[in-house]
Amino acid sequence: MIRINLLKQRSRTFLKAERIKRINTFMVLGGVLVFVLTLLYMSTVFVYQKFRANELTKELGSLDRTYNSRASEVVSYVRVKQLVTNVISIQARRFRYKDYLLAIYKLLPSSAKLSSVDFSEEGVISFGARVDNFNDYDYLINKIGADSKDKTFLFKNIALKALTKDRSGSIIINLEARIK
To answer: Considering the entire predicted model, what is its pTM?
Structure first.
């Protein structure tokens, strides 16, 4: 005779059903807990963002009032800045007479006298010097040769236009310098 225990099968089915109910309850409660925590987090972030937006709005209003109270100063500053920029631009385009004259004076021997300077031709400076003897003339020619090798020299080349001796014995040298 074979015995079938129906109670044991029912008890197993009952235990499986109970286990499934517990898992479902755990999943539902876990889902609800995650939802509540997410809701709390999002609410907190929303409240913080609203609070921060109100603070920034107040700060923006304060900055706006400060800017409006200083608008005339800003306009004056912009005008002055434009004037300074224009002056700097003009200064940069201005012909450097002083620099060229100083470069010419550096070439001359100490006893020489600059007798004429002509800036009338664009890119060329014609100048004349009066020296006492040919030693000063040689010094001038050697100085031009030595200084022309320097990269900071302001002239491309310097050419002798004329060399004359006047009644007093002074030598008049006329030179032409091409600007770099």
So the answer is: 0.48
